[in-house]
Amino acid sequence: MENDNDMNRSLKTRHLSMIALGGSIGTGLFVASGSSISTAGPGGALIAYVAIGIMVYFLMTSLGEMATFMPVSGSFATYATKFIDPAFGFALGWNYWFNWAITLAVDLSTIALVVKYWFPSWTSWKISLTFMLVLLVINFISVGSFGETEYWLSSIKVTAVIIFLIVGILTIMGILGGHGAVGMSNYTYKKAPFVGGIPAILSVFVVAGFSFQGTELIGITAGESATPEKSIPKAIKQVFWRILLFYILSIAVIGALIPYTSPNLLGSGAGDIAISPFTIVFKKVGIPLAAGVMNAVILTSVISAANSGLYAASRMLWSMSKNGMAPKAFQKTNSRGVPVFSLLLTAVIGGIALFTSLYGDSFYELLVAASGLTGFIAWLGIAFSHYRFRKAYLYKGYSLDDLKYKAKWFPFGPLLAIVLGIIIIMGQDVRSMVDFNFGRLLISYSGLIILFICWAYYKIRYKTKFLKLEDIDVKETKNGNHY
Q1: Cα 413 from chain centre
Q2: What is the pLDDT of residues 211-223, one digit of tens each?
Q3: Which of 72, 149, 343, 448 is the most exposed place for a label (fewest CB within 10 A)?
Q4: How many angstroms separate the CA atoms of 379 and 369, rounded?
């Protein structure tokens, strides 16, 4: 390392590839996918997941182009600062940190619920606190320990989905299950394949979007990758196959095996594995201990999400501190390149939110609602930053052939992501808009309000301006040390 505040580039290609492959697979796929089919039918759910999958793929190619060119931790805030407006970068960074800090608390609460499936007499806050300390130790040791932990947790999730797909396809063909070939009859059952029309499909866009969130973690890990120019493009390719195989094919199999009218698909509680369509399929086939096995897989998924959240939030805070957008203390790293104070503050805020939730404080619900939109806002930031980067890159006379990784189909990719992102954000709570429930609207869209407050504060204090193409600095970084 060059100084005490530098990161340690020890994440290997296999770490980034597995994080890309299984990083965002969680309760969104294992549980909420069932409610998507129940709401919009198998065809409607499939359309929503395909559309969001295309959007996410283009987002990752955009992020890949910038991350190989400028591999820095906390990349979203840095790119927005350099290519759009420092005030927007400030707002994007703090919103993303806030989102993961609060999500950490939600994940820890969910871990307690899942563990109590086996040990119902155990105290929830003690379970959550124990896992918090374990994850804190893992992240404190080194970025390598984080990468290794995430590698094995993601491996379990990926293996579970592959087994599910094999079992599901064999059941559809009649080889498993003992009830003959199921075929695609559930796609034409009653009102299927499309239930509820366009409004229902649009509402599922939101669920599908949340299921994919966490994919952008590749941009955060770029700053600690040993070989970003090799590992990031490979990880981006893994994203394409993950979207196709794990999400879209899983939705197609679930839609074929479970009718949209099944009452087991109507729930959405993260800890209640009885509603997991994966569990329903395993039970149909007659696999013993299906519920317990699926519960174990969901536990690894939630632990993985909490581990990733603690990592992502601490790196974003470190990056903002390096760029003068957070107190200098948060850029301090230990001898192994771990941002200790950034990690501690994230854990403290997550812990406070956790204990607030355990005591039923309504303020916690407001925090969760405020953080809900942040993932979509980060995606918009990525797409807009890439659009501006590419425009400035060509404006300054640089050749696209010099880029280590070039996003395909520009400008279609980022523009599609921007349009879909805006539609999803505005469609978060259409019913409250129609009924004009001001209180509900305030909570549902509080993430946008927080973003605007952060942006306005930085804009007014530092009088920043929207950057013109000629003012954008697109000089290549070397090992992330551009500044």
Answers
A1: 19
A2: 887 788 777 776 6
A3: 448
A4: 18
